[in-house]
C-alpha cells in the first residue's frame, strides 16, 4: 500500500465504484466503498483509518453536498478531506462543491492523474 491510510469512495453507481477502486488499487491505494452517503457517514464514524473521501455529488436520498456539510459539522469527521466527484461540469459547480466544504474537485470522466495529484496533496 502507498500508506496505511484508506480511501473511502462514496457513489450510488457500482460501476463508478468498481472503476475507481480498480484504478486506485493498481496504484497501491487501499480503498473501501459505500453505495450511499448515509452508509458512507456511518463507515467514517467506525473506521478510523479512512484518510480521505471521494464523494459523488449526485446521489438519491442524501446528496454529496449534504453529506459533506454533515461531515464538516461533526467534530470527529471535519478534518477528513473530501474530493467532490461530479458529472455536472457546469460553470459554478466547482465553487458550489468547495462552498459545501469539499477540499478538492474532479469532474467525470475522472482524470486519474489529476485525482492522484489531489490524493497525494491531501492525504
Automatic annotation (TrEMBL):
<dbReference type="Pfam" id="PF00072">
    <property type="entry name" value="Response_reg"/>
</dbReference>
<protein>
    <submittedName>
        <fullName>Response regulator</fullName>
    </submittedName>
</protein>
<feature type="modified residue" description="4-aspartylphosphate">
    <location>
        <position position="56"/>
    </location>
</feature>
<dbReference type="InterPro" id="IPR001789">
    <property type="entry name" value="Sig_transdc_resp-reg_receiver"/>
</dbReference>
<dbReference type="GO" id="GO:0000160">
    <property type="term" value="P:phosphorelay signal transduction system"/>
</dbReference>
<keyword id="KW-0902">Two-component regulatory system</keyword>
<dbReference type="InterPro" id="IPR011006">
    <property type="entry name" value="CheY-like_superfamily"/>
</dbReference>
<feature type="domain" description="Response regulatory">
    <location>
        <begin position="6"/>
        <end position="123"/>
    </location>
</feature>
<keyword id="KW-0597">Phosphoprotein</keyword>
Amino acid at each position: 500500500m502507498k500508506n496505511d491510510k484508506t480511501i473511502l469512495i462514496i457513489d450510488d453507481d457500482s460501476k463508478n465504484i468498481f472503476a475507481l477502486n480498480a484504478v486506485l488499487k493498481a496504484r497501491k491505494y487501499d480503498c473501501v466503498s459505500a453505495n450511499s452517503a448515509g452508509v458512507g457517514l456511518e463507515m467514517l464514524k467506525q473506521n478510523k483509518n479512512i484518510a480521505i473521501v471521494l464523494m459523488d455529488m449526485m446521489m438519491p436520498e442524501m446528496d454529496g453536498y449534504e453529506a459533506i456539510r454533515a461531515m464538516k459539522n461533526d467534530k470527529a469527521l471535519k478534518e477528513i478531506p473530501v474530493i467532490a466527484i461530479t458529472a455536472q461540469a457546469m460553470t459554478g459547480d466547482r465553487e458550489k462543491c468547495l462552498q459545501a466544504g469539499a477540499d478538492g474537485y474532479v469532474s467525470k470522466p475522472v482524470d486519474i492523474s489529476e485525482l492522484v495529484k489531489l490524493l497525494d496533496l491531501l492525504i
